[in-house]
Design a protein that fits this description.
The protein is α/β, with parallel strands linked by helices and about 900 residues long. About 45% of the residues lie in helices and about 20% in strands. The protein has 35 helices and 32 strands. Helix 11 crosses helix 12. Keywords: Membrane, Signal, Transmembrane, Transmembrane helix.
């Protein structure tokens, strides 16, 4: 189709309308102030911005680096920033009268710790006495220093027991001995120490029960009062970003390197990400969750330091995610009363037991001591429990560690109070059987909640114990922590069944669900539709914007496809840019119309632009549709038929859907058979080289020819290259065929240079697959030309513009090899592809071949004539010769010659002919 100059005006107008529409949707601008420089510690906020979560929430967010840890608090309180990232010292600020409100906790455990040079096998924190230590700033502002100072005091080391110097935040100061101890983040400095081979010990406040929160997202009371919906939207988008960052660590690291900072290399960012997992605990705890009891624990630590009064109230400090405040004080008082009654009852009960035991104590003392040793030293958690009241009678240390509670805390609760509600029902049912004597023991896999809100998995073994007549029934509960095993199993199952990029079901899960839906379809006599979706032009996005942005597009494409189907349907990613959809339980009344409506919705959804960073990308979709049981009865055939239908949609012009028909199966079978026949064509000498003359328009002389391959099939006759070349490329046979074409062309050009014209040239076409292959193929060609005593100028290699679009190092190296050998290069079908003038300037091109679509409609004052003249003038100014293809009339020849075109090729001069006929034509003059 001829190029219309006024089409540019239409495109620019459409673009202006789109830009205008986008400008209308203004977003609220807010600022997030970080407490340090850009690093993985803040990856969730980068992800929320780059993945578009903030944009979807109606927010335009600016993320600023911090110069010191207290900058976020200063800026949020002053109104310079709406949101900030702070430490647990926010609690001190709140109680000091500053209007800060914590929106959510990101680090469930603080990464703050103390590092010292390792000097012996046994770490000893008391080595800090009398030494120099960098712990926080020396200013009066609050920060993580309080956490470490509380730790040292609890270890018996007062602040006056060591020399505190200003923190440089440079690990080299500890490595080089400038200081003896340094406050560090366990997610950062250990990697630096390991790289330089520095031996170190790490001391964490958690070792003595000081368990602070790490990074916290916070805002001001002013922001919360004036913009409650904005606060809710910002928090939700931020937590969504954190979920993405923690489950896509490598992509998040690449995002930081590409968009935010290269201070740390990729290896360090991934180290930081791995160390953050046990601190953030994204699998066990919803990111953003915070526990009032944990804040109370932090307040108690501050109170012990004299920085807060005991039992200080921090009402309003924690953001209520559900939008309402729940006063639990009455509940605590009731529970406290119940606990007091239980303790008093337990005291009376134990007093009675003591009198009974006293008479037999001496007899069983030795046995008791042996049992006690085994009980306390057991690697399993063991507890003795009243089978009626579910009160704890005895608990070993390991049981306390697994539950994360002290013996005193466990005495105040009952056995199943900390269990997951779904599992408690099962355990109680087993206990009823135990109480009735139907069973004497049972095992279960259960979940329980720890005080910090984390969920732990345990294997439980319960055994009934014999008790004296009239005594309260008891049972022995033994538990083993299998949380790590469960997490590993969950991760393995997730990776085995779901795509790691899009989180959609993968091929394995897709097959399982389709098999299940097929069984149900047979039983209910319903139908299933399978949609095979392939993104058109996705490779161009990967090639131009990079694989990282390609991945972003795939994630968004998965979301859009999912939005077009029912929740009961399955959307899966089979790999690359291929998606599938299972539409089950179709309504017989509108099954065809309904499937087509969904397919068209998917096409329309994917046609909308994709925002990829600062760029926009456009793709479309080709969809193949097949029905069960109409088109096939097994999974492999259904997928094969859907794939065939998808390729039919691509062949029909892309951006459409196509149903499977038996004709497609016949065509696919024909292609398969033709490919099989193609494998024996070279050995069977079924190929033949035709030549078409290229005429000098000024003199009428024939000094060039284009070599064109033909396949003489023994049964089908002559097969068009348009039919078998794509099959040769898909099967890899194009490389062998290309070598055969080269050797044949070299044989004939040698003859014509010696007998017809000393400068005669033959052009051979190169597939992109041939041009991009690795190895020494061109070196072998050059050695063959030398053996025939032919210069490189005897051949011209014709390539297409599309090859130069992906001009990687391999393509550039091959072009340099050709130039150095004297082999010239022609750009075929010029004007129909990308037509970037930068390619002509960047690469060594000798000829431009004007495509026949321009030549076909040449007429004076036509747009095709204007474009042809422009191409000719441009080429000559760049030092290139021009060959016009498709010359069929004397008028076309004369117009091209008048425009300065160098050569013509087409039916006016001669059709392609076998080599012998071409030779006779040259001989006849």
């Amino acid at each position: 189709m001829p190029f219309k100059p006024f089409a540019i005006v239409k495109l620019l107008a459409a673009a202006a309308l789109l830009l205008g529409a986008a400008a209308v949707q203004a977003q609220e601008k807010v600022t997030l102030q970080l407490k340090h420089v850009h690093q993985f510690q803040f990856a969730g906020y980068y992800a929320a911005l780059e993945q578009g979560y903030y944009r979807e929430a109606g927010l335009e967010v600016r993320i600023l680096e911090g110069a010191d840890g207290n900058e976020p608090e200063r800026d949020v309180v002053s109104g310079k920033a709406e949101y900030g990232v702070g430490s647990s010292s926010l609690l001190l600020s709140r109680l000091a009268g500053k209007p800060v409100v914590v929106l959510g906790v990101v680090f469930q455990h603080s990464p703050y710790a103390l590092a010292m040079r390792q000097t012996s096998a046994e770490p000893d924190i008391r080595r800090i006495l009398g030494k120099r230590a960098m712990i926080g700033t020396l200013a009066n502002e609050l920060g993580n220093a309080d956490e470490l100072l509380a730790y040292l005091i609890k270890e018996g080391i007062p602040a006056s027991g060591f020399e505190r110097v200003a923190h440089s935040f440079n690990p080299d100061d500890l490595v080089n001995g400038k200081v003896d101890a340094m406050a560090i983040y366990t997610t950062n400095e250990p990697d630096t120490f390991d790289r330089v081979g520095f031996p170190y010990d790490i001391y964490s406040p958690r070792a003595v029960g000081i368990d602070f929160y790490g990074d916290n997202l916070f805002t001001s009371e002013r922001e919360l009062a004036n913009h409650p919906e904005r606060v809710r939207a910002f928090r939700a988008a931020s937590m969504r970003g954190w979920q993405w960052a923690m489950s896509h660590q490598e992509e998040a690291a690449d995002l930081i390197l590409n968009k935010y900072s290269r201070r740390a290399d990729r290896q360090h960012l991934l180290y930081e990400a791995r160390q953050m997992v046990p601190l953030v605990q994204p699998v066990l705890i919803e990111i953003g969750y915070m526990n009032p009891e944990r804040w109370r624990h932090i307040a108690d630590v501050y109170a012990a330091l004299g920085m807060l009064p005991k039992d200080a109230s921090f009402d309003g400090f924690m953001y209520n995610v559900d939008g309402e405040r729940t006063n639990l004080a009455w509940l605590y008082r009731v529970l406290g009363g119940i606990a007091l009654v239980l303790v008093l009852g337990a005291a009376v009960h134990f007093s009675q037991l003591a009198r009974e035991r006293k008479r037999a104590l001496e007899a069983i003392r030795q046995g008791e001591q042996r049992f006690r040793t085994m009980f306390e030293a057991s690697p399993l958690g063991i507890a003795l429990i009243d089978s009626v009241s579910y009160e704890y009678r005895d608990i070993n240390l390991r049981y306390q560690e697994i539950l994360g509670r002290s013996q005193h805390e466990l005495r105040l609760v009952k056995w199943l109070d900390v269990g997951h509600p779904d599992d408690v029902v099962q355990v109680k049912a087993q206990m009823a059987l135990l109480a009735s004597g139907q069973i004497s023991s049972f095992k279960a896999n259960s979940r329980l909640f720890r005080p910090d809100g984390t969920l732990a998995w345990i294997d439980v073994s319960v055994t009934a114990l014999d008790v004296p007549a009239g005594g309260a029934p008891l049972h022995l509960c033994m538990i083993e922590d299998v949380t790590a095993q469960k997490q590993s199993e969950a991760l393995i199952w997730q990776q085995a069944n779901f795509d790691t990029l899009t989180q959609l079901p993968n091929r394995r899960m897709f097959h399982d669900r389709l098999a299940h839906d097929m069984l149900k379809s047979r039983r209910d006599r319903t139908r299933i539709a399978i949609l095979f979706i392939d993104l058109d032009h996705f490779k161009e996005v990967n090639d131009t914007l990079g694989h990282a942005q390609g991945d972003v597009l795939l994630v968004e494409a998965a979301r859009r496809i999912g939005a077009c189907v029912r929740k009961s349907d399955t959307v899966a990613r089979l790999g690359g840019d291929e998606f599938t959809v299972i539409l089950a339980e179709l309504d017989p009344a509108e099954q065809v119309e309904g499937v087509e409506r969904i397919a068209q919705q998917i096409i329309e959804s994917l046609r909308a632009p994709f925002a990829l960073g600062q760029e926009q990308a456009f793709v479309s979709a080709s969809i193949g549709i097949t029905l069960f049981p109409d088109d096939a009865l097994d999974i492999d055939d259904l997928l094969k038929h859907a794939d065939q239908a998808m390729y039919a949609a691509k062949g029909a012009g892309r951006n459409r859907y196509s149903h499977f028909t038996p004709t497609l199966q016949v065509a696919a079978l024909s292609r398969m058979r033709l490919t099989n026949d193609l494998r024996g064509a070279l050995k069977g000498r079924q190929f033949e080289l035709y030549f078409q003359p290229i005429v000098d328009l000024a003199s009428g002389a024939i000094t060039k020819a284009e070599a064109l391959i033909r396949w003489n099939h023994p049964q089908r006759g002559v097969v068009s290259p348009l039919e078998f070349i794509p099959l040769a490329e898909a099967s890899g046979l194009i490389l062998e065929i290309g070598d055969w074409v080269f050797h044949e062309a070299a044989r004939w050009v040698r003859r014509w240079r010696s007998e017809h014209h000393a400068e005669f040239q033959v052009s051979i076409n190169q597939s992109p697959l041939e041009f991009q292959r690795e190895g020494d193929s061109y070196q072998r060609w050059l050695r063959h030309l030398e053996s025939l005593q032919l210069p490189g100028q005897s051949l011209v290699v014709e390539i297409t513009e599309g090859l130069l679009l992906d001009a990687n190092s391999t393509v550039s190296d091959k072009l340099l090899q050709l130039r150095d050998a004297g082999i010239q290069v022609a750009l075929d079908d010029f004007g129909t592809g990308y037509s970037s003038l930068s390619y002509l300037k960047k690469f060594d091109i000798d000829y431009l071949k004007i495509d026949r679509s321009f030549t076909r409609n040449l007429a004076p004052d036509s747009s095709d004539m204007a474009l042809s003249e422009a191409i000719i003038v441009m080429a000559h100014k760049l030092g290139l010769k021009v060959i016009a293809e498709g010359v069929e009339t004397p008028e076309q020849r004369d117009l091209l010659a008048a425009a300065g075109c160098d050569y013509g090729q087409g039916y006016l001069f001669a059709r392609p002919m076998p080599a012998e006929e071409f030779d006779l034509m040259l001989r006849s003059g």
